[in-house]
């Protein structure tokens, strides 16, 4: 076992130093987890089309207490507003209940479900265009169709492994990125740091062709 040759004290010192380095030099990276989908509370979901059925939950069949008569449009609006007031008495949350007669649900915009974004700021050591080493062919894990995108390497605490593994996208220095391969744990002995490799999904705003054109035009 190679590990046994390293003195525990050395290991511990190395781990502590790596932690200090990450803490000291790190920038915060925004990690988006898969959004949570929940059925729209304001309309009926149509499983056949995977969309909103276009029918409001406040309708002639559900709004009662109208003396046996079908509810008027005004009564259905009132029922929805009352439900919204119950959900959000202070009036500072998003609309969840709003009457509509037919067509597009104003709460989910016809999707039939609501998405809750989940994101977290994580401290990482950020290296743009890392030299991944001549011994490893760094192009082997670049997904197809991403030629021309920039690689970014992040070093962070291994406790963030699951968060990164389940992320849908990340934002590094304001630039949208996607993970190019699962994160790897690196270090001596015990887990010390986790290395995340990602690539940009945004194209640069000015491409090099335009810059060259400008130069030739000016000269
Ligand atoms: Zn809806």
What is the typical, i.e. mean, pLDDT?
81
Poorly predicted sequence stretches spanning 5 or more consecutive residues: 133-142, 206-219
Provide the β-strand percentage band.
25-35%
Characterize the main sheet: 6 strands, antiparallel, barrel
Question: Terminal Cα separation, in Å?
Answer: 64 Å
Shape: elongated
Look up the CATH topology of the largest domain: Thrombin, subunit H
How would you describe what is shown here?
The strands form two sheets. This protein has a six-stranded antiparallel β-barrel with strand order 1-4-5-9-7-6. Strands 2-3 form a two-stranded antiparallel sheet. By secondary structure, it is an alpha+beta fold. It folds into two domains: 109 residues, Beta Barrel (Thrombin, subunit H); 71 residues, no CATH class. The C terminus is likely disordered. It is elongated. It is built from four helices and nine strands; from the N terminus they run H-E-E-E-H-E-E-H-E-E-E-E-H. The longest helix has 18 residues. Zinc ion (ZN) binds next to loops. The site of zinc ion has 8 residues, from loops.
Keywords:
Thrombin, subunit H, disordered C terminus, single chain, 9 strands, 31% strand, 219 residues, alpha+beta
